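Notes to self after the call with IL:
- keep both proteins in one doc
- input above output, always
- annotate only the second one for now

Protein 1:
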Amino acid sequence: MDEFVSTFTNRLDSKGRVSIPAPFRSVLMRDGFEGLYCCPTLDQNAVDAGGNRLREQIRAMLALFEPFSEDHELLSTTLIGESEILRVDPEGRVALPEAIKAHAGIGDTVTFVGQGYKFQIWEPERFLAYRAEAKNRVRELRRRLGGRREAGGAE
């Protein structure tokens, strides 16, 4: 599979390194990016991570805006200027920089959340709260979409 799927929680070691889950490492190897591209998420205290496919999505998003426009500058500052390219050691570990840990509120444990072309890195308790909120919002969305289908079928 060429997508990041599932959720894993790992502890940082005494040197501040964390093992990228083996299934995620496999996807990164097939992607061909040297290292791990990380940038702050736009709307949560978490970190988007991945390889070439994540970088392609960022480039595609930026291409929607006129170069040098304020929106382009704001997005590029966040998605590129605040990004980090982390080196993955032979054991599949990365050292999380302080800026990333501070942004996500990471202490000694991280949760990796697959999202297809990318994955996110979360502080585990923050992720549990976010996941609960996401499930509630998806249930509401499903109810709204189901109501549309019923209304559309009644015509």
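Protein 2 (the one to annotate):
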Amino acid sequence: MTAITPIDREKLLDIYKRTMKVARFDEKMRSLLMSGKLATIYYTMRGQELVTSAMMAALNQDDYLVTTYRGQHDQIAKGVPLDLLIAEIAGRATGTCKGKGGSMHITHPATGVMVTTGVVGSGLPIANGLALSSQNRKDGKVTVTCFGDGATNIGAFHEAMNMAQLYKLPVIFFCQNNRYGEHTAFADHTKVDSIVTRAAAYGMKGVKVDGNDAVAMYQVAKEAVDRARAGEGPTLIEAMCYRMMGHFFGADFSYMPPEHIEEMKAEDPLPKLNALMLEHQFPQDQLDAIVAGLEAELEAAVEFAFASAYPDADEIRKDVFEEEIAA
């Protein structure tokens, strides 16, 4: 684990805002699902709100992100507008992909969210492609690819790591290790103690960090981003966190031992972040006002989404092949 050093107050506030936006979004989605107002597959990111917010706070808006079907926290922290995101999840034409992608396939290039993949681990080679493009064009952009511990045992992980280090690509492999691949504990599908040890096999820099520690997580992210932007190559980050709800919305914790559930509750990142903010002399009423503003933003986003039309039937034939644009 990395040592803790001071953090700029403005940056800490930025991380708090991103984290709480993710948290309130997740609560709103679960509320809509439980009330029957929304019917869709949904993978809650409860417990992983902070880990991604600290990572995305280290990026520029035009840096690239590739994430997975459990990626709404990554997308929100990167800056995807809530109204367009909710509209897409609700299958509306005003969504980021015209309502044709749903929660598992969000794309929003304006904020650098280039691909959300529905296949475990498939985003890593795609991220290499984006990073290689940036390297060739010398545009200074960094690509981050997010995945869980369950993705680290497929071929694409190893192939992408090898290629990235070989060409010193400006890419960051960001493993949010929430300790379970679907319903399988990390120790039951991987024999090494830490995923980060695999970086050594490729001569790559690897860092393991407490993803629920805002200061440590941001500093590790910032160092990796700076290295990539300076042409010093990729980094594998293993950020330890917890998935505080089931694999998908509606799943229970029957596969978890009781001691793990208690440990998970004790490490909840939201109260830990709130305590950190108070330690840095942010008054509670200021923090509460931020959350209230996010609630209003969410209500407006939901209203926009449900007032939007569904895509026309002829949209099924569009966005399949590249269309030639007349000069």
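Annotation: Residues 244 and 302 are 24 Å apart (CA to CA). The first strand starts at residue 64 and ends at 68.
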